[in-house]
Amino acid sequence: NAGVTQTPKFQVLKTGQSMTLQCAQDMNHEYMSWYRQDPGMGLRLIHYSVGAGITDQGEVPNGYNVSRSTTEDFPLRLLSAAPSQTSVYFCASSYTPTGRVGYTFGSGTRLTVV
Amino acid sequence: ELKVEQNPLFLSMQEGKNYTIYCNYSTTSDRLYWYRQDPGKSLESLFVLLSNGAVKQEGRLMASLDTKARLSTLHITAAVHDLSATYFCAGYNNDMRFGAGTRLTVKP
């Protein structure tokens, strides 16, 4: 099994550009979420989804959009990139939001906005 | 809103020594999680603690939960170099919130 697959692994954007970070899982997990990791701040929740067609905002949603058209995919869109969005982004999934065995995380996307 | 605080944020240990990482949380949490992250890698789930008094152990790591004190601990016994990593605790209250992480370095 592939688990949670994130693409790309690295990306450099210019300020104002838009892009989509891809996340796909093959475990039939209903719950998926996006976190960003910044030094000294742990992981902060951006958006999450409890199933296809259902999304909600997390702790730091501004500047990001999501949609969930299928169970497998949960892309994160940056509308107009800003240097403050330079971070490592992780996608996570689980059967349920409480994650009985914890979340399964992807390998991350390291984004730099210049 | 659930807030999770860990201490210490940095920990340098000698091999063979014992130490404890503390995780405090601000409000009710349905359960408490511990994750490990190696440098440049993703997060791996270590433990999920479901109720007051829960204790889980794997190898040299033991996690416990005191819901009345809103405190979880991760105890390291006889540390070895392979345990060097960043350890995160997280709680759940409507969504999963993480602490800042404890960067553990085990030196020979």
Number of helices of chain B: 0
Parts with pLDDT < 50 across at least 5 consecutive residues of chain A: none
Biggest pleated sheet of chain A: 7 strands, mixed
The low-pLDDT segments of chain B are: none
Helix content of chain B: under 10%
* Helix percent band of chain A: under 10%
Would you give an account of this structure?
The complex is a heterodimer of chains A (114) and B (108). Chain A has strands spanning 4-7, 10-13, 19-25, 31-37, 43-51, 54-57, 64-66, 76-78, 87-94, 104-105, 109-113. Chain A is mostly beta strands. Chain A is globular, with a radius of gyration of 13 Å. The N and C termini of chain A lie far apart (36 Å). The mean pLDDT of chain A is 96. Chain B has 108 residues and is an all-beta fold. Helices cover 0% and strands 57% of the residues of chain B. Chain B has strands at residues 4-7, 10-14, 19-25, 32-37, 43-49, 55-58, 61-66, 71-76, 85-92, 96-98, 102-107. In chain B, strands 2, 4, 5, 9, 10 and 11 form a six-stranded mixed beta sheet that branches. In chain B, a hairpin with a 4-residue loop joins β7 (61-66) and β8. The radius of gyration of chain B is 13 Å and the shape is globular. Classes of the chains: A mainly beta (114), B mainly beta (108). At the A-B interface, β5 and β10 of A face β5, β9 and β10 of B.
Keywords:
heterodimer; A: 114 residues; mainly beta; seven-stranded mixed sheet; 11 strands; 0% helix; globular; B: 108 residues; six-stranded mixed sheet; five-stranded antiparallel sheet
Reconstruct the topology from this structure.
The complex is a heterodimer of chains A (114) and B (108).
Chain A: E1 4-7, E2 10-13, E3 19-25, E4 31-37, E5 43-51, E6 54-57, E7 64-66, E8 76-78, E9 87-94, E10 104-105, E11 109-113
Chain B: E1 4-7, E2 10-14, E3 19-25, E4 32-37, E5 43-49, E6 55-58, E7 61-66, E8 71-76, E9 85-92, E10 96-98, E11 102-107
Parallel strand pairs in B: 2-11
Antiparallel strand pairs in B: 1-3, 3-8, 4-5, 4-9, 6-7, 7-8, 9-10, 9-11
